[in-house]
Amino acid sequence: MQNQEIFKRPVWKAIFSMGIPSLISVLVMIIYNMADMYFIGFLNDYTQVAAVSLIMPVFSIMTAVSMLLGNGGCTLIAQALGAGEKKRARSYMSLCIWTAILLGVIIAGLIIVFSNPLLKFLGTNEEMWQYARNYMLILAVGSPAMLLNYTIACLVRGEGVIKPGLIANFVSTGMNILWDPVLILGVKMGVSGAALATVLSNVIGIVYLIWYKMHHEMILTFNPKPARESVRHLGRVFALGFPNAILNGFASTFSNQLLVLYGTSAVAAMAAAGKATMIVGLLQMGLCMGVQPLMAYYYGAGDMRRIKEVVMKLFILTLGIGVVFGAVGMLGSKALVGLFIRDLEVVELGQKIVCIQLLSAPFAGIYYIGQNFMQATGSALMATITSVLRQGVLLIPLLYIMNAIMKMMGIPTAHVMADFISIVVTSVLTVIIYKKVKNQLKQKREA
C-alpha cells in the first residue's frame, strides 16, 4: 500500500515524518486542553478553575480508554502490516472503533448514575460542588464522541496515515477555541459552556474523519463484521494499550484529595501549575507515541537494527525537548500560571509548584521511549508494570509521605520523586528486553 511507504524511508526521515505530525498534534492538544481553563480564568473566579481541575480525572478516564484502544490497536495494526497481513490489520481497526463506541456509552451511563459518590471521591467541597457536577455531567453525555475521535486518530497512524488524525485535531481544537468564549463568557454558561464546547468540537472531529475515509483509500473501516471476527484479539489490544492508559489514570485524584485540605486556592494553584508543566511531558510522550508504529512495523518485519536506531535518535530528541522546554517553563513560570489564574497569591504558589515539577523534565523522555519500545515489541506486561509503578505503587504512597513531611509542597515533590525512580527502573528493563528481543529475532531468522 502507498500508505506504508513512510515505514520504508531512512530512519531520521521516517522519525520526522511520523514524529513531527505527532508533536504538532500534541501542541494542538495542549492548546485544546488549556483553552477551557484560560477562558474560565476571565471569570475571575478561581472556584470554577478548581472545579474543572477536580473533574479532570473523569476526563482522564475517557482519554485513558481511548488511548487503551487507540495505541493498542495502532501497535497491532502496524505489526500486522509489517508482516504483510492487511486483512488482520483491518479487523483490528474495526474492533477498536466499535469497542470505543460501546465503552463510551457504558462510561456515560456509569458517570451519570454514580455522579454524587464520584464527586465526593474526587474531593469536591460544597463551594465547588455545583460547578463540578455540571461540568462532569456534560462531559459524560459526550464521552462516546470523545472516545471515538481520539481512538480513530490514533488507529490511522498504524497504517502510516498521518494527515487525517492531525487535521481532525486541528478542527476539534479550532472549534473548541471558537466556542469557548461564546459559551463561557458570551452565553455566560461558565464551566458548563467549557464542557459543551469540548463535546461539540469532538463531534466535528469525527465528522471530518468519516468524510476523509469516504474520499481516500484506507484500511480504516466502520464495518462491524471484521470486529466480530477478531473479538478474541481484544485482550491483546488492551494489553498493549494499557500502559499508556495508566498514564492518564486516576492518580491526580489522590493529589486533589490532599490539596483540598489546604483550601480551594491550593487546588487552583496546582491546576494552573499542572497546565503550565504538562507541555514538556506531553511533547516527549507525543513524539514517542508518534514513532511507536515505526518500531512496531520494524518489529513485525524483524529489523532490529532499525529499532535500535530509532531508540537512540528518540533519546537525543526527547532530551533536547526536556532541557529547552523545561528551562523555558521555569523562567516563564509566572507568565504561564498567570494565563489561568488572576489572584496574585495563587499565582505565586503556582510558580513554586512549576519549578518543582519541572526538575525531572530533561530525563522524562527516557521513560516514554522505554514504554513505547516495550509496547512496540510486544512486551506489554513490562510496560504495564512501569506505568503502575509510576502512577500507583510509587506515587500514591509518596504523596502521603511527602505531604506529612513537607506539607503542601510535598505533593509536587512526590510526583518528581516517582518520576526519577520510574525513569531508572524503565531504563534497566528496556535494556533487558532489548537484548531478549534481539536474540528472539536472531533465532527466528536462523530457524
Task: Provide a descriptive summary of the structure in words.
There is one protein chain. The chain has 447 residues and is mainly α. Helices cover 83% and strands 0% of the residues. The protein is built from 18 helices and no strands. Helix 12 packs parallel to helix 15.
Radius of gyration: 21 Å
Which parts are unreliable, with pLDDT below 50 for 5 consecutive residues or more? none
Number of helices: 18
Largest sheet report: none
Q: What is the typical, i.e. mean, pLDDT?
A: 84
Reading the helices and strands in chain order gives HHHHHHHHHHHHHHHHHH
Sheet-strand content, in percent, reads under 5%
Query: Which structural category do the helix and sheet elements fall into?
Result: mainly alpha
Number of strands: 0
Helix content: over 70%
Q: How far apart, in Å, are the first and last alpha carbons?
A: 29 Å
Give the overall silhouette: globular
Considering the chains and any ligands shown, give keywords for the structure.
mainly alpha; 447 residues
Please summarize what this structure is.
With 447 residues, the chain is mainly α. Helix content is 83%, strand content 0%. The protein is globular, with a radius of gyration of 21 Å.
Give the SSE map.
Blueprint: H1 11-41, H2 46-82, H3 86-113, H4 115-121, H5 129-141, H6 143-155, H7 163-186, H8 191-215, H9 225-229, H10 234-247, H11 251-259, H12 264-301, H13 304-331, H14 333-338, H15 344-357, H16 364-376, H17 380-406, H18 410-446
